[in-house]
């Protein structure tokens, strides 16, 4: 039995720890915060609100089913999962609103109402997207991205053109649809998950299949229920989790990690999975000569957005709101430019409102609503309180316009979260919220390596390495890192016995 450390108790850290524990190793997770979940932590107020701090879209349910199934569990035995109908709503200019049904037949009818002939085009688009999803989420994402030889697979090579890795997502969408509303609907996932549509590979139409065909789900109790289930699974594998335990140093010698320093105490380990922010781990926990990448490397990377979040409690119900509402009543392209090309606070931002109390009575006091307002923005911006409040007023006024009445006087809880908080709580590079953008130059083997190049038993997991940003990829990242650690430890054991 080897002794392994994991830095960070987010999705990727818990996933890696569970797989390594199941393989018979002694595993310890060191988490700097007082609870598990990383960006998916929850907090509760004394007045009875429960807030998911980060992820709120439950897509790709099969990834969660596979994770829990690998440990003999079914999702339904761990938390209640409900399919949302409508999946979400989109608000367009002049307060025009689209409700996106969970039923694909109804979705076809909606497309056809908006643009004649688009129902058949949607079928063709989804056929391609399904192929990409099945290849991408069942094969490509499980590759560690260490070498190009991983991709020397005849079937995969034959399918490269269909995967459209080298095509623009924006052009791909416009081949099928002309109406601006349909284009915005198809492009919205990439704004939140990684890059301008023009710079994102058409491969990521798999996200449209995930969201529009497989459905948008909600775990009762919020994402905290998913984290609680993962903690349960990890502990069943013998994993020990240490909270309020920030790692101060990775100790190494002779091309190997020897242990960690936590609270001034040195502890020996046979391997380490760094599931905390990759750049922080390298810059703060390793000497320069043992880092995979320089500061210049990170400076030149394209990051997915940070965001301004407001957690609100409202002392009355808001029946006009669905669970998820996207405010696309301003220009998507202009806001994208202000995130990726000309970083600054947006002039006319798009934003998103989540109202989980619409689906879940447990997250708000009776007769109240729990609101989560999120505005994507460029990482690295200064976020003084006055600036946060300015954009709060922009968002709340547009929300009030959409529901047709004022709710400001009914706010009984209000808390903001922005760039500087992501840095403080997660050591997040420039306060990014989602990791690296899904651009062609940052796909697969072109992402930061999952293995340290100078230390044979240090591996990385999370949204800054393979397979990329988002909750399902983070779960998978932990699985990949665990497999690499187990393989490395077997190799060392073999070398010792020989």
Structural write-up:
The protein is an alpha/beta fold and 498 residues long. The model has no long low-confidence stretch (mean pLDDT 94). Strand 6 and strand 7 (97-100) form a beta hairpin. The longest helix has 27 residues, at 471-497. It has helices at residues 11-22, 61-69, 75-78, 104-114, 118-138, 154-158, 160-163, 169-176, 180-193, 206-213, 223-236, 278-285, 295-299, 332-340, 385-403, 419-426, 471-497; strands spanning 3-7, 26-30, 42-44, 50-52, 81-83, 88-91, 97-100, 217-219, 240-242, 247-253, 256-262, 265-268, 271-274, 306-314, 324-327, 351-354, 369-377, 411-417, 458-460. Strands 7-6-15-16-17-14-18 form a 7-stranded mixed beta sheet, sandwiched between helices. A 5-stranded parallel beta sheet has the order 9-2-1-13-19, with helices on one face. Helix 1 packs parallel to helix 11, helix 4 crosses helix 5 and helix 5 (118-138) crosses helix 10 (206-213).
Summarize the structure.
The protein is α/β, with parallel strands linked by helices and 498 residues long. It has 17 helices and 19 strands. A 7-stranded mixed beta sheet has the order 7-6-15-16-17-14-18, with helices on both faces. Strands 9-2-1-13-19 form a 5-stranded parallel beta sheet, with helices on one face.
Topology record:
Layout: E1 3-7, H1 11-22, E2 26-30, E3 42-44, E4 50-52, H2 61-69, H3 75-78, E5 81-83, E6 88-91, E7 97-100, H4 104-114, H5 118-138, H6 154-158, H7 160-163, H8 169-176, H9 180-193, H10 206-213, E8 217-219, H11 223-236, E9 240-242, E10 247-253, E11 256-262, E12 265-268, E13 271-274, H12 278-285, H13 295-299, E14 306-314, E15 324-327, H14 332-340, E16 351-354, E17 369-377, H15 385-403, E18 411-417, H16 419-426, E19 458-460, H17 471-497
Parallel strand pairs: 1-2, 1-13, 2-9, 6-15, 13-19
Antiparallel strand pairs: 3-4, 5-8, 6-7, 10-11, 11-12, 14-17, 14-18, 15-16, 16-17
């Amino acid at each position: 039995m080897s002794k392994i450390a994991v830095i960070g108790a987010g999705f990727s850290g818990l996933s890696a720890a569970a797989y390594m524990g199941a393989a018979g190793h002694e595993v310890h997770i060191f988490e700097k915060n007082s609870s598990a979940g990383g960006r998916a932590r929850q907090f509760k107020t004394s007045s009875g609100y429960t807030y998911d701090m980060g992820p709120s879209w439950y897509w790709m349910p099969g990834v969660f089913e596979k994770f829990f199934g690998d440990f003999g569990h079914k999702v339904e035995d761990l938390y209640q999962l409900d399919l949302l109908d409508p999946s979400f709503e989109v608000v367009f200019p002049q307060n025009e609103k689209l409700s996106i049904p969970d039923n694909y037949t109804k979705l076809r009818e909606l497309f056809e109402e908006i643009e004649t002939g688009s129902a058949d085009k949607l079928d063709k688009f989804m056929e391609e997207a399904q192929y990409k999803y099945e290849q991408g989420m069942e094969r490509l994402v499980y590759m560690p991205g260490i070498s190009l030889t991983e991709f020397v697979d005849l079937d995969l090579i034959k399918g490269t053109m269909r995967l459209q890795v080298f095509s623009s997502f924006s052009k791909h969408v416009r081949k099928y649809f002309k109406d601006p509303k349909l284009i915005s609907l198809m492009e919205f996932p990439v704004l939140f998950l990684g890059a301008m549509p023009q710079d994102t590979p058409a491969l990521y139409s798999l996200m449209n299949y995930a969201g529009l065909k497989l459905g948008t789900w909600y775990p009762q109790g919020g994402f905290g229920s998913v984290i609680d289930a993962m903690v349960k699974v990890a502990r069943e594998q013998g994993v020990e989790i240490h909270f309020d335990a920030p790692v101060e140093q990775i100790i190494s010698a002779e091309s190997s990690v020897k242990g960690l320093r936590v609270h001034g105490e040195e502890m020996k380990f046979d391997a380490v999975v760094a599931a905390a922010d990759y750049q922080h781990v390298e810059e703060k926990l390793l000497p320069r000569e043992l880092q995979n990448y320089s500061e210049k490397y990170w400076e030149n990377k394209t990051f997915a957005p940070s965001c301004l979040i407001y957690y609100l409690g409202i002392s009355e119900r808001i029946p006009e709101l669905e669970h998820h509402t996207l405010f696309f009543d301003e220009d998507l392209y202009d806001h994208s430019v202000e995130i990726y090309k000309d970083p600054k606070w947006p002039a006319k931002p798009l934003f998103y409102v989540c109202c989980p109390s619409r689906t879940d009575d447990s997250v708000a006091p009776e007769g109240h609503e729990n609101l989560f307002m999120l505005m994507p923005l460029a990482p690295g911006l200064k976020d003084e309180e006055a600036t946060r409040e300015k954009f709060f007023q922009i968002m709340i006024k547009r929300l009030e316009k959409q529901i047709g009445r004022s709710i400001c006087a009914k706010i009984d809880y209000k808390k903001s979260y922005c760039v500087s908080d992501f840095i403080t709580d997660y050591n997040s590079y420039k306060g990014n919220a989602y990791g690296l953008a899904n651009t062609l130059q940052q796909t697969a083997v072109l992402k930061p390596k999952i293995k340290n190049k100078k230390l044979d038993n240090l591996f990385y997991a999370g949204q800054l390495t393979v397979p990329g940003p988002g909750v399902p990829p983070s779960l998978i990242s932990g699985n990949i890192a665990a497999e690499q650690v187990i393989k490395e430890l077997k190799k060392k054991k073999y070398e010792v016995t020989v």
